[in-house]
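Writing this down once: the sequence line spells out the residues, with the fold written below as integer tokens. I am pasting one below:
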Amino acid sequence: MPVPKVGSGNPVPPLEVALNMKWPNNRFLLLSYFVLLTVLVTVGCTSKEDPSEVLPLCGNHTCGDLKMVTTDTSSDGFHYLNPTLSPDGSRILFSADWKAIPSIERYDEDAFYTQHRQMIVIPVPDPYLEDPSSSLRSQDAMLIRISGFLTSVYISGSSVNLDQALNDRKGGPIWMDDENVIFWMNTPRGNRLFTSDISGICPDPACNAAALPMFMEPDDATPNGGPFHHMEPALSPDGNWLLFTRSGCAIPDSFETCTNVDLRVLRMDTWGLDNGYDADVLPLTTAISRLEKPRWSPDGSKIIFSAGLDLDGESTLGTEIFTIDFDTTGWDTGALTLNNNLDRLTYTKYSSGDPIVGVFNTSPAFTPDMSEVYFVSSRRAPSITLHDRNLWRIPADGSLDPEILFFTRADDMDLEVQADGSILFSSLLGFPTEMLDRLEDAAYQDIVDDNNENNTGLTEVEMRALASDQRRLLEFFEGVMAQLYFFTP
């Protein structure tokens, strides 16, 4: 973006590192960030005192310690999702639109950009970022390159080379340990779970990683195996068990095409045996219309997930949060207790004006002491946000109504609770108000200094207006890009 000139003096610097940005075609009006919002959080019937209808905000988000992990300004719509912190706490693994590295605009072939997602690793900023960045690469992020020439899968009696592995869609990345990751990747028989050693990744395109299959369907070895998808892996705290969802969805993330979705567990000391065909896997739940986002409790005794209400014998409108107990009794006989001590934590009450497709409660996670569950919900809070997703909290036994945990005027998604109680998540929040305030003040001071040095003749009103114009360049990203954040309540 050209640097604006003021009179005949020196260029006036824009907001420091908001480089290569375009002014949006349709300018968004600046929302007022310092208001109190009306909240309607009346869900279920408990003895709890009615929640306050006033939600205090600190700028454009719930009060608390908010830190940006990514501040990328290179795109008009890249989404960084499913973040997870490495065991040593130094890096974050997440999925990103193809191709965020190198950054390519999303104007053409938009479906390809959003469906063929890639995996990226970025160091946790130390100190945390205080200025926008021109790209992920400028933040030392690296693409995990899965090469088809290093990856093959045994399907239909022969070894199939995944020639499109580099560019094909991948998702649900998690850490196996500090050097190995687990994820799902597309194959001719649907999404399958793979693992890769990423210790050798680097910015050079020659740095490739091989993907090893973890578990294959028995029918994958036959000519006419069905299209099943293994997705959303979650590793147990002791590393011995891998949860995942198995579905017969024609389109993996399409609710309408899903059938027979259940939760399964893989014994990790058997992964990859005979190309994944001898891996030991058993179901944990009955098959239903929708089941997603399984997580372990910190002690490994419970599994929490989001599911359609047919799991509880009701209609499939929306999803709720459930838990089951994890008990390996019966493993040796190949039969575990399905829906073991099934417990439903959320009961969403619908009101006039709610989305007719239902409210979705998803991405649940226990707090470190297992006293609460944090989750994402599209329920109304406040009433003006009919469809946005926000972060909520509820007692781990579901005894009280949910309360808002983190609120913005845009979608907040994919939370992961850390050992210290902080939350790593993705959001379309954009740049926090406190960062915008500081950058606008810095821009104003630069303009004042230039005015004094070069006698540009600008009035106070004109200098303030120039600084405000530069701020609006960053306000454009609210609701546009999904960045990564840490939040400590």
User: Anything to note?
Assistant: The first strand starts at residue 37 and ends at 38. Helices lie at 110-115, 433-454, 460-475.
